[in-house]
Design brief:
With 126 residues, the protein is mainly alpha-helical. 58% of the residues lie in helices and 0% in strands. The protein has two domains: 11-69; 70-112. It starts with 14 loop residues before the first helix and ends in a 25-residue tail after the last helix.
């Protein structure tokens, strides 16, 4: 008799899933390149992020196999995304609120730098 638990079998992904995902990623990459050639004004970033999220979703679900994993693996992945969002939230809020915490940081100090910029055409001697 075997001591294996039959509920712990790993799903074997058919090759057609990988081929379809590869073709989808190639098409989305072409879309990314084509969209980058045009100026959509304020829509440039949302369009680029939408295409990137779709590509990331395909990679995560098919190539990484999250589509066929257990619920715990999905929760762990989503939890990591939540903590990444919290990390970015704290980082950006620190950067945005920094001048308000310490008034001296908001003041521009006109300090003369001892570093001399190179003049175009001038040679550099050591």
């Amino acid at each position: 008799m075997s001591n294996h638990d039959h509920s712990d079998h790993h799903f074997i992904v058919p090759a057609r899933y990988y081929v379809a995902t590869l073709l989808s990623l190639l098409v989305l990459t072409i879309i990314t390149v084509v969209v980058a050639q045009y100026n959509f004004g304020g829509w440039n970033l949302p369009i680029a992020l939408l295409v990137a999220v779709i590509k990331a979703g395909l990679v995560i679900n098919i190539f990484m196999g999250l589509r066929w994993n257990r619920t715990f693996d999905r929760i762990a992945f989503l939890g990591s995304l939540v903590f990444l969002f919290i990390f970015f939230l704290f980082s950006f809020s620190d950067e945005l609120l920094r001048p308000y915490r310490n008034p001296i940081e908001a003041v521009h100090h006109d300090i003369k730098s001892p570093v001399k910029p190179l003049v175009k055409g001038a040679e550099h001697h050591e």
